[in-house]
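Lay summary. Proteins are chains of building blocks that fold into shapes, and those shapes determine what they do. In this project we predict the shape from the chain. Here is one chain we studied, written as its sequence of building blocks.
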Amino acid sequence: YTTLFRSGQAVIPANTAVTVYLNAEQQASTLDEYATSDATFSVVVTPLGIIPTAGVSVDVTGPGVSVATNTASWSHEIGAGDNYAIVALSCSCPDSVLLETVNVTYGGVAMTLIGETEVGGLGDQGWVSLYGIQTPASGPQSVVITAASAVTGIVANSFSFDYWSQTSLAYLTSGDSTDIASSEITLSSSQLAICAILSYGTGAITPGEVAGSALWSKSAGGNGDLNLTVISAIGTGGNFSATGTTSASQPWATVMATLI
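And here is the predicted shape, written in a compact code that computers can read:
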């Protein structure tokens, strides 16, 4: 016996099995005393959301900045349907400065640190970081970076993504006085990798042969020490290798994240 349809309509919870008897013959052997004749049912479906048919992808790349100060800002506008944004940034500093002294906001909302690492294991030469934010505000928004007063340069840019559902830190690596900066992981077909490569010195990074594309590359404007390249790729079930060749055997660092 059930009162599910006594009022003539019902809302059935998700993941609930319901048996509906359409006529008297079908319900005759049951204890439901109310279905005594043929009945007509109308089914109304209310969509709970749109299931994406495509994987996560980079939709918008910001203009980026290169400054010889401890603060930086620029404007980023996400694309239609974008639901995640990442800021890749690098800082240089002649003194030992804690990495946590950098604050990054998007539209006035604090971004979350995904991962960071020091150049060649030496914080006084600089570091590279990735910050992320879920459901960033639409329309033109200010990206603001505020670092400790001892920071002498910032190179950074923003990227927004559509069909995003999850971000994970994948890889941190660094080296000192070598010609090759590299990060390599295995990507499934549903993953996207984004890798920020920083070298510290007078020579710029030349992106190597990668299973992806160089989204953005810029050198510091003031002191010329920071050279930041951001590389991304969509997984095909194989290895993704983000590499860069430095021109002056200079120290480097990389930070990589995966998105699905």
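What the prediction tells us: The first helix runs from residue 24 to 27.
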